[in-house]
Specification:
The chain is built from 9 helices and no strands. The chain is mostly helical and 174 residues long. Helix 4 packs antiparallel against helix 5. The longest helix has 21 residues.
């Protein structure tokens, strides 16, 4: 019995296409297979009526890896003399948010400058009210890098640090 082939022609953002291609290469699969996997996974989530919009453990780890990698790349690109000065510059943009407090500053410092464990889903969900508001770390990094091509928070959750090489050339010196 022959399977009927179907084709879906869609237009997507160049940034998303680059990210998908990079992810497919990193998994050593072709783009078609990756897109099918993503669609199947997302379709399963939709059909199970999963109404939770909070971070999963995997997404929290991807976000942590993204922020660490982007912090290091931006620190180099913006020629900060050391990581501490870079952190102080970044944290000045983040601590303006209402839900931010000193314990989050210490935690972020341990993640970015030390050997701190990755953010957990419960920490990020508390910080963002289960993604009901923008993550202050995301917003701070976006402003700090000055990037016009900054990925969405959802894309970061899905692809993590694999996005940093794609956007590193859009980091702007202030």
């Amino acid at each position: 019995m022959n399977k009927k082939r179907t084709q879906l022609n869609i237009n997507i953002d160049e940034e998303l296409l680059r990210a998908l291609k990079f992810k497919a290469l990193s998994r050593n699969i072709n783009l078609n297979t990756l897109v099918k996997q993503i669609l199947i996974e997302d379709t399963k989530l939709l059909t199970t009526n999963n109404t939770s919009t909070g971070f999963s453990d995997k997404e929290a780890k991807n976000c942590t890896n993204f922020m660490k990698s982007l912090f290091q790349k931006t620190t180099q690109k913006l020629n900060y003399p050391n990581d501490k000065e870079a952190f102080n510059s970044l944290i000045s943009l983040i601590k303006k948010y209402d839900q931010w407090n000193d314990s989050y500053t210490k935690r972020l410092k341990s993640v970015l400058l030390g050997d701190g464990k990755p953010w957990t889903s419960s920490e990020l969900n508390k910080l963002t009210i289960s993604r009901g508001c923008e993550c202050p770390i995301y917003a701070g990094l976006k402003i700090w890098t000055g990037s016009d091509e900054f990925p969405s928070q959802d894309l970061i959750c899905d692809l993590g640090s694999s996005l940093v090489p794609i956007i590193e050339n859009s980091i702007k010196i202030h």
